[in-house]
């Protein structure tokens, strides 16, 4: 058990070092950086919803540098086509055959910038990639690179020129986070040039280490009482009257995976109720909406209601 403890503590130290390195460029957002790191550790996809200029793109670039991942940014616009993302087959007259020219999605960290400015048809080009880590073009399925990770940014739906993400795509994002405005101290430090540029952020974790960390997440113990707690939360979302629709089995799996990743960042090989509670808003609130007829138009988050109603025991 002592050797196991040392092993998990080493992983924790490595991850926290990576989080600190990202924090040199993204000031005052340690919790959000940690959440994004947990999403990467759990092999999910991340949705960042916020106003323009909040550091969403900088966060994605910093993560790619710290974890040594190849990076591609795709600017989503109203005229973007699926082929612009995935790639296209072009006829080669020399070989008298079609040759596939891969698109930018064949990279390790993909930033789908302002994803809700593209049409639903173009948004759907990411569905297979996010869920199965592969794309299919002209009937041929092609695997995406190892350690594939999608970060999508989304502008508030109240802004002009946006298309709402369909529920089927929202459900494929393991987590959704908001960066929000920086604190006064962080913004002052930014204006005084005390933040590192993203280009100065150093690589902390290599590919082999990241693959081991992601595998390690799957080894975190989730006890039966904790599984029952997660299921009580999930089943409560399916009660008529309280919520518009309940959480899917994919959602309950996302809760378990995210809680394991959060526990591992703390250097533990087991999940606590606090881990589930910490990640619940990021995993639940983009999947489940509160019934306004029941709670009014107060913008109440589903996670807040559930945590007040569902006990651990």
Tell me what you see in this structure.
The chain has helices at residues 2-23, 30-41, 56-66, 82-86, 120-123, 127-132, 167-170, 184-191, 207-218, 224-237, 249-265, 273-284, 292-295, 302-309; strands at 46-49, 71-75, 87-92, 97-102, 109-113, 134-137, 140-143, 149-154, 175-177. It has 14 helices and nine strands. It has two domains: 2-206, Rossmann fold; 220-313, Orthogonal Bundle (Helicase, Ruva Protein, domain 3), CATH 1.10.8.80. The model has no long low-confidence stretch (mean pLDDT 89). β3 and β4 (97-102) form a beta hairpin. Helix content is 44%, strand content 14%. It is globular. The protein has 313 residues and is α/β, with parallel strands linked by helices.
Q: What is the name of the CATH class of the largest domain?
A: Alpha Beta
What CATH architecture of the largest domain do you see?
3-Layer(aba) Sandwich
Q: Please estimate the helix content.
A: 40-55%
What would the principal axes of the Cα set say about the shape?
globular
Q: Name the CATH superfamily classification of the largest domain.
A: P-loop containing nucleotide triphosphate hydrolases
Biggest sheet architecture: 5 strands, parallel
Low-confidence sequence ranges: none
- End-to-end distance, in Å? 27 Å
Count of runs of 4 or more consecutive helical residues:
14
Which strand order does the major sheet show? 2-5-8-1-9
Structural class: alpha/beta
The name of the CATH topology of the largest domain is Rossmann fold
Radius of gyration over all CA atoms, rounded: 20 Å
């Amino acid at each position: 058990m002592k050797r196991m403890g040392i092993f998990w503590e080493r992983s924790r130290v490595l991850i926290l070092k990576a989080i600190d390195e990202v924090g040199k460029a993204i000031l005052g957002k340690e919790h959000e950086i940690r959440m994004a790191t947990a999403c990467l550790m759990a092999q999910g996809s991340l949705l960042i919803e916020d106003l323009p200029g909040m550091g969403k793109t900088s966060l994605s670039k910093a993560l790619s540098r710290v974890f040594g991942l190849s990076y591609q940014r795709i600017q989503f616009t109203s005229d973007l086509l699926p082929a612009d993302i995935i790639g296209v087959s072009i006829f080669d007259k020399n070989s008298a055959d079609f040759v596939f020219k891969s698109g930018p999605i064949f990279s390790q960290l993909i930033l789908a910038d302002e994803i809700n400015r593209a049409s639903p048809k173009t948004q759907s080009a990411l569905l297979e990639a996010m869920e199965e880590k592969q794309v299919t073009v002209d009937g041929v399925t092609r695997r995406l690179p190892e350690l594939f990770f999608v970060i999508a940014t989304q502008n508030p739906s109240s802004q002009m020129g946006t298309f709402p993400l369909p529920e089927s795509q929202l459900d494929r994002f393991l987590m959704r986070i908001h960066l929000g405005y920086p604190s006064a101290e962080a913004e002052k430090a930014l204006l005084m040039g005390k933040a590192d540029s993203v280009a100065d952020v150093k690589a902390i974790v290599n590919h082999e280490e990241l693959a081991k960390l992601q595998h390690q997440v799957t080894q975190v113990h989730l006890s039966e009482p904790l599984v029952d707690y997660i299921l009580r939360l999930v089943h409560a979302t399916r009660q008529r009257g309280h919520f518009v629709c309940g959480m899917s089995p994919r959602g309950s799996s996302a809760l378990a995976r995210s809680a394991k990743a959060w526990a591992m960042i703390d250097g533990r090989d087991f999940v606590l109720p606090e881990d589930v509670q910490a990640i619940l808003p990021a995993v639940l609130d983009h999947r489940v909406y509160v019934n306004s007829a029941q709670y009014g138009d107060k913008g109440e988050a589903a996670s807040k209601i559930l945590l007040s109603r569902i006990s651990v025991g």
